[in-house]
Amino acid sequence: MKENPAMHKIMENMKPGVIALHGFLGKDTRNFEEIIDHDAGELERLETDRETLAAKLEEIRDKAMEGLGIYVKLNDTYMAKADSIRGKIPCPFDHPGVYSKTVITIQNLKTDEEMIYTDLGIHLIREHGFFQGTGSLFRMDPEKLHDLLEND
Ligand SMILES: [Zn+2]
Predict the structure, then answer these.
(1) CA 99 / ligand 1 centre spacing (Å)
(2) DSSP code of residue 28
(3) What is the pLDDT at residue 148?
(4) How many angstroms separate the alpha carbon of residue 75 from the centre of ligand 1?
(5) What pTM was estimated for this model as a whole?
């Protein structure tokens, strides 16, 4: 894959401290296109797609918002809460518009694992198929997201 100026700008945007304090790539040494390609393969293996997962995350966000910072039980496996954080954040792919920084935390009651995401994270999945780099604070692993649907 050849890096063009547009890609270079996106890679810069994804570094820590440019748009987001912790950046979007975590410890991942792959570039964003390689991460997207890999996760697209995961979606195929799981027989799901990014729109389905993004819609689920929106549904959970809306339920979590009703809890006003307190955990809301989603089912026997999951609960979620929303923490309001002031400010907005732009898309690293240089789209117009900004996204709420409200942080949604989903906790798996059986494994104690947590997943955290924001509105931007939902946008990145839906529009870009980008689940963020491994080790990134807001990495959304397709397999773990798929489990949200399986346990619905
Ligand atoms: Zn975008």
Answers:
(1) 10
(2) -
(3) 87
(4) 31
(5) 0.93
